[in-house]
């Protein structure tokens, strides 16, 4: 069972929200409703989050992220649709039951992990558990563990002003993750931090998550952050989720030009893996000639050196240790500079090992075979 499930969620602010939902179901967009003085904050959002996953919701300011998050913990009632937490429909709970779920099972983490200046680091880290009524010995034990995971062992008795800004943020993160709640909702939690501390926090979150295995919904307007953190990413635009997928899905097969335009600035070399860009080996390819053999999960940044020292493609092995594909130097260079279209991303048996047909999003895709002048859209039967 999914830990969290959103099904056809809508949130409309303003007059006659139910009528607005009907219009939206018939295909109206935000702009049309705005003319009636209503705001469609979230339109037809559906997704599932599995236990232990980090699910990232990414979108520009105003795209509906915070509204979506508030519906997930029952702070906002959906205009239509359902939210299920461990199979239980939050929209069906009484206010009392909802408060119970919210205080015990779901934790909302906002920006700024403000610490209490007159409490020790340990007491600060244990604060979330204290609020939940966990006995002292137990909460201190867990706070100790969380602090150790956050790289703060030895600082337990110190006070916040004895720590650097970055370390204070980590205490706050340890506090947030040390709670009993297994669902954490994080709304732009790192957005106000300067870039170095922010990166450190992202690393800490991933590190803590390895042990704590919370289910996390993380909101950000930064695609690089989304790709670093997200097991899966939902991209929102004007209230709608326009794509859900892994970082690689979004980079390699963006759902539309809007998503593709976001991916221009992403550090592909760290996000894409050998397995995502590999192609079939040429006839007669001998892995023992390869300058390197890597697993499918290797980030392509690690392929530059071997690819630059040899004309032979790097060998990529699958989970069984057998040869699964190759990465050529031409392919490596091409994926760094270009956005690959869907039909080109799949390994191609006829590929001769040269750069496959990569096309820019704004270029006219070249159809193999029939060339009847420019085509708007690639369509096999057109
Ligand atoms: N309580 C509210 N009343 C009216 N409009 C709202 C309310 N909350 C959010 N909105 C509107 O809904 C849209 C989505 O807002 P929000 O969910 O905060 O987006 P994000 O978090 O992505 O910046 C915006 O147009 C915002 O102005
Ligand atoms: Mg917001």
TrEMBL record:
One of its GO terms (cellular component) is membrane. Transmembrane segments: none annotated. It comes from the Bacteria. Residues 368-382 have a biased composition (Basic and acidic residues). GO terms for molecular function: ATP binding; ATP hydrolysis activity. Residues 4-263 form the ABC transporter domain. Residues 343-382 are annotated as: Disordered. PANTHER family: GLYCINE BETAINE/PROLINE BETAINE TRANSPORT SYSTEM ATP-BINDING PROTEIN PROV (PTHR43869), GLYCINE BETAINE_PROLINE BETAINE TRANSPORT SYSTEM ATP-BINDING PROTEIN PROV (PTHR43869:SF1). Belongs to the ABC transporter superfamily. This is Glycine betaine/L-proline ABC transporter ATP-binding protein. It comes from Streptomyces xanthii.
């Amino acid at each position: 069972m999914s830990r969290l499930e959103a099904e056809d969620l809508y949130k409309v602010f303003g007059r006659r929200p139910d009528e607005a939902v009907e219009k939206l179901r018939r295909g109206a967009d935000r702009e049309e409703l705005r003319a009636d003085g209503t705001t469609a904050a979230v339109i037809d959002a559906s997704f599932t989050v599995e236990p232990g996953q980090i699910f990232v919701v990414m979108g520009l300011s105003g795209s509906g992220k915070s509204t979506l998050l508030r519906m997930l913990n029952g702070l906002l009632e959906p205009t239509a649709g359902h939210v299920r937490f461990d199979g239980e429909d939050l929209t069906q709970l009484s206010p009392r039951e909802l408060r119970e779920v919210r205080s015990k099972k779901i934790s909302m983490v906002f920006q700024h992990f403000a610490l209490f200046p007159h409490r020790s680091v340990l007491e600060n880290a244990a604060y979330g558990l204290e609020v939940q009524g966990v006995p002292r010995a137990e909460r201190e034990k867990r706070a100790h563990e969380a602090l150790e995971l956050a790289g703060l062992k030895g600082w337990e008795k110190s006070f916040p002003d004895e720590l650097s800004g970055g370390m204070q943020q980590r205490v706050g993160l340890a506090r947030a993750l040390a709670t009993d709640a297994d669902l954490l909702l994080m709304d732009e939690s790192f957005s106000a931090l300067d870039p170095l501390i922010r990166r450190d926090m992202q690393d800490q979150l991933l590190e803590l998550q390895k042990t704590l295995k919370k289910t996390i919904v993380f909101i950000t307007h930064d695609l690089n952050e989304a790709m670093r953190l997200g097991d899966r990413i939902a991209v929102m635009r004007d209230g709608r989720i326009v794509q859900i997928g892994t970082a690689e899905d979004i980079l390699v097969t963006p759902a539309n030009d809007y998503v593709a335009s976001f991916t221009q600035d992403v550090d592909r070399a760290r996000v894409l893996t050998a397995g995502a860009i590999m192609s079939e080996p040429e006839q007669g390819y001998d892995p023992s000639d390869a300058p390197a053999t890597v697993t499918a999960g290797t980030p392509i940044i690690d392929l530059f050196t071997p690819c630059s020292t040899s004309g032979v493609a790097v060998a990529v092995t699958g989970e069984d240790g057998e040869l699964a594909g190759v990465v050529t130097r031409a392919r490596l260079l091409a994926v760094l500079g270009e956005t690959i279209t869907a039909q080109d991303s799949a390994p191609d048996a006829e590929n001769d090992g040269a750069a496959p047909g990569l096309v820019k999003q704004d270029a006219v895709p070249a159809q193999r075979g029939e060339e009847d002048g420019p085509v708007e859209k690639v369509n096999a039967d057109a």
